[in-house]
Amino acid sequence: MRTINFDTIKVSKDWAFENARSTDQWTHGYHRYPAKFLPNVVKKLIESYASPDFVVADLFAGCGTTLVEAKVHGIRSVGTDINPIATLITRVKTTPINPQQLERAYNKIVSSFETFREEDYANLSVHEKLDYWFRPKEKYRIAHLYQQTNRIRTVSIREFFLVAISHILKNCSGWLQSSTKPQRDLEKNIPNPFDSFKQHCAHMMKGNLQFYNHLSEKGFMDVECSISQADARHTAIADGSVDIIITSPPYVTSYEYADIHQLTGYWMEYFSDINSFRKLFIGTSYSGKSETTKSNSILGDSIVEALVPKDKKVARDVSNYFDDMRSVAQEMYRIVKKRGYACIVIGNTTLKDIHIKSAEVFYDFLKMAGFKKVDVIKRNIPNKLMPTLRDKTTGKFTTLSNQDCKKVYPDEYIIIVKK
Predict the structure, then answer these.
(1) What is the mean pLDDT of residues 252-279?
(2) Averaged pLDDT for residues 271-294
(3) What tens digit of pLDDT does each residue of 46-98 get?
(4) Which of 99, 123, 186, 329 has the highest CB neighbour number within 10 Å of its CB?
(5) Are 356 and 242 in a shared domain?
(6) What is the residue range of 360's domain?
(7) Would you place residue 186 in the very low, low, confident or very high pLDDT band (cuts 50, 70, 90)?
(8) Based on the domain organization, do 153 and 135 belong to the same domain?
(9) Domain membership flag for residue 398
């Protein structure tokens, strides 16, 4: 594959989906997720490059968009994600549940609200971080929801309502609603968790009904779909067992995925220390690596070198990210069948006024691994799906009201390669 100047690629209107409401379809709206993978993109990739007898894989499954779309297309799929909360969400989103059974379980939980008493939870012991985020009034009600949900014996139904609880935690806490960073809003008008639970369950149950009926009508109910917690650099997926990979790797600032899920992590005891949780993610400053390393990408190494005099820590983080992503490219090549495809949706960003060309660097890694180019598509990212503004001074995500803001994720690339 010869080198491509990504800057000269024109934006494709065919892949924009600006007015699409696909996040409301099927089970896609079950849970908020940072930098959510647009279902329309996955749908178009499946319909363009996959066949009914294919196996689709997503090594960064996130909240399960690729696996849901594979299921509704009747195609087998396998997903991995290092985040146990993501695997919970994906497992629920890809599991159709009998609507009548689901409604009976829901009614039982709601009927328990009548007997709820705050004093029953006055001695509740939770992680100290939860006391920082939740007032007693909301904390006791969430504890009641969690207790009632854990009494459900059917795993798929129990996990369905655990995802509903997870989704409302941010709303019902002191977390600043408009922020993707952990930031408190001391003036926030916090809703009653029981009301939020009922409202979101109604939304989820509507999605499940649509998903269940579609799969039943198409005969796709038993189409294989598996999700496991695993590192994208070292999965347990067999050599040459996948026909097509459709995935969207994390951005350089991937530790934000850990932060955004800390409420669920503490409530459901996925971890007790967020620093240890952060270390799991690709390219984080918590990886323990103390020096920058060579990635074997001329472009990647030049980006790191440009960052060193500006901020050594940021340079090290980006170096770690590139090093991790090189391993991911090699893992992709290992699991894909001969003549199989890999479709990677990835964007660039800016740190310390240096353009971090993640897409181009990962393209280098795919070439090194042995892939051959099929196409590179450029598309605009709707602001509603991803925080696109950073403060020029602090580097933190911000809003248009900040006069010192700049746009950092205006578009992204779809890299399509073949083994």
Answers:
(1) 85
(2) 78
(3) 999 999 999 999 999 999 999 999 999 999 999 999 999 999 999 999 999 99
(4) 329
(5) yes
(6) 6-95+221-290+324-377+410-418
(7) very high
(8) yes
(9) no
Q: Is the pLDDT higher at 293 or at 195? A: 195
Continuous segment of H or E residues that includes residue 129: helix 128-133
Q: Are residues 149 and 230 in the same domain?
A: no
Q: What are 13-43's pLDDT values in tens digits?
A: 899 887 766 677 999 999 988 777 889 999 9
Q: Is residue 156 part of a domain?
A: yes
**23 and 120 in one domain?**
no
Closest CA to 261 of 170, 172, 337: 170
Q: Is 13 exposed, middle or buried (0-12, 13-18, 19+ CB in 10 A)?
A: exposed
Compute the distance between CA of residue 66 and CA of residue 86 in angstroms, rounded to an integer. 13
pLDDT at 397 exceeding the cut of 60: no
Q: CB under 8 Å to 234, separation ≥6 — which residues? A: 327, 331
Q: 330-334, long-range: CB within 8 Å, 24+ apart, which pairs?
A: 330/365, 330/369, 331/59, 331/232, 331/233, 331/234, 331/235, 332/59, 332/245, 332/366, 332/369, 332/371, 333/366, 333/369, 333/370, 333/371, 333/419, 334/239, 334/240
pLDDT tens for 332-369 read: 999 999 999 999 999 888 888 899 999 999 999 999 99
Percentage of residues in the chain with pLDDT exceeding 70? 89
Block residue for tokens 């950092």: 408
| Number of domains observed in the structure of the chain | 2
Confidence (pLDDT) at 163? 98
**Would residue 317 count as lying in a domain?**
no
Residues 45 and 16 in one domain: yes
Q: What is the largest CA-CA distance in the chain?
A: 69
Tokens representing residue 81 in the block? 């994600």
Does residue 386 lie in a domain region? no
First to last CA, the chain: 12
Are 133 and 40 in the same domain?
A: no
User: DSSP label at 267?
Assistant: H
Instruction: State whether 161 and 48 are in the same domain.
Output: no
User: 42 with 66: CB under 8 angstroms?
Assistant: yes
